[in-house]
Amino acid sequence: MREQTPTHFVGLDIGTQNVRCVVGMVDEADPTRPTIIGHGSAVNHGVRKGVIAHVDDVADAVAHAITEAERLSGVHIQHATVNINGSHVTGINSKGVIAVSTASKEIGPDERLRVEEAATIVQLPPNREIIQVFAKNYRIDGQDNIKDPIGMHGVRLEVDTHIVTALAPNVRNLELVLERSKLFASHKTLSSLAASEAVLDRTQKEAGTLLVDIGAGTTNLAIIEDGEVHHVAIIPVGSINLTNDLAIGLKTDLEIAEKVKLQHAQLDDSNKDLNAKVEHDGKSHLFEMSDVRMITEARIEELFELIDKELKSVRRSRKLPGGIVFVGAGSKIPGISDFAKDKLELSARLGTLQPLGGLVDVVDDGAYASAVGLMLLDMVLLPEDGSGGGQPNSRAFGFVEGLLDKIGLKK
Q1: What pairing do the DSSP bridges indicate for beta strands 209-214 and 324-327?
Q2: Which of 7, 8, 155, 407 has its CA 20 to 30 A from that of 106?
């Protein structure tokens, strides 16, 4: 059970290649500036394209990352807000309708909760379950675009929601990993939604922005518009696919291809050398930069085509004023923002973390955006009521208000 008044907050990002843990707290002297007090990471061999394939391997990686974070922060970690990943995670739109039954016809928290629960009455296959419910807007007696109905009066309350569902067996595997790691999941959420809290400001969330988290095995997408979650998707393509392409195209080993990717993959002209040189096992390996560039462009262009397909499915292709914000280890390829501007015809930039204090030297990195966002959400989400299901309070997510504003309200 999570303590009622926690003094520290934890985000755990279980990725395809790495597990990252970030520990933070609210600075009493400056409650609007979260402070990082610990972090840890471990190589993960038990996940395939975001889905847990080997429970024991993932549990070992989680335990190592948590131990490292505990050693640095000096606190014992028992709970964390955790990501759930994989292309099995999907989002659907749903509506809920109730009659306001109070004598005064005033809408209170109970009515809001009832209408959100009504929206979750949808037909799902028996092997799927609801992970999160996001209320996008409410209607009272036909009056539309109401963000918070509490205190208003009416006889008919409606809500438009976006519901995130996942395959139940994969959720059980995640819970089994946490159980073996002796960790309680305060909440579960998507990597892209967590990263959006870490890097997007209020203006971007209101205008309409696509958050793209390029990981090793998956690319997480989240469209935040009018301050609410509009669409989420997970594409089973990540930076590992580029490594595989380089290994095939350059006719070399995977270990060497990974070094080529990290040191020489580019989408601009920042490296004007004719050859890409890497060292491996005491030997030098040379490849033509033109080949590396061609392979990189082909893979990223294919990824952007899949992203544009998702945007078209919700009629947002080339129609997001806030543009695209890239995070994740795969976003470090030089020139990816300009390449996205050309291919997706939207403004694009690399995400930068919200102001943080403490040990930010390591976590101030695109690869840690999801872990930092999970920690921030652990900070602002309401504690669970003891059910242990990890289902978050949809109104506590704060896509209406800025994260730092909410931290100030909590104080």
Answers
A1: parallel
A2: 407
**pTM of this structure:** 0.87
* Alpha carbon 212 to its chain's center: 9
User: Which of 269, 267, 288 lies closest to 277, judged by CA?
Assistant: 288
Closest CA to 55 of 165, 175, 182: 175
Q: How wide is the angle at C-alpha 191 spanned by C-alphas 85 and 259, nearest 5°?
A: 85
Residue with tokens 């892209």: 192
φ, ψ of residue 304 to 5 degrees: the values are -65, -30
Q: Which whole-number Å values give the CA distances from 214 to 177, 189, 242, in the listed order?
A: 23, 17, 12
Q: Dihedral angle at the C-alpha atoms of 386, 387, 393, 397, nearest 10 degrees?
A: 70
A 10 A CB-CB count for 312 gives 12
Strand spans (E) along 252-345: 275-280, 283-288, 324-327
Mention every residue, 6+ apart, whose C-beta is less than 8 A from residue 304. 339, 340, 343, 344
Amino acid code (one letter) for 59: A
Cα-only R_g, the chain: 22
| pLDDT, tens only, 235-263 | 999 999 999 999 999 999 999 999 999 99
- Say how many Å lie between the first and final Cα of the chain, rounded: 23
| Interacting residues of 311 by C-beta distance below 8 A, sequence separation 6+ | 210, 223, 317, 318, 319, 320, 344
Whether 295 contacts 245, CB under 8 Å: yes
Reading the block at residue 82, the tokens are: 């955790």
Which amino acid type is present at position 128? Answer: R
Helices (H), 47-186: 55-73, 109-119, 168-180
Mean pLDDT, range 107-134, rounded to an integer: 92
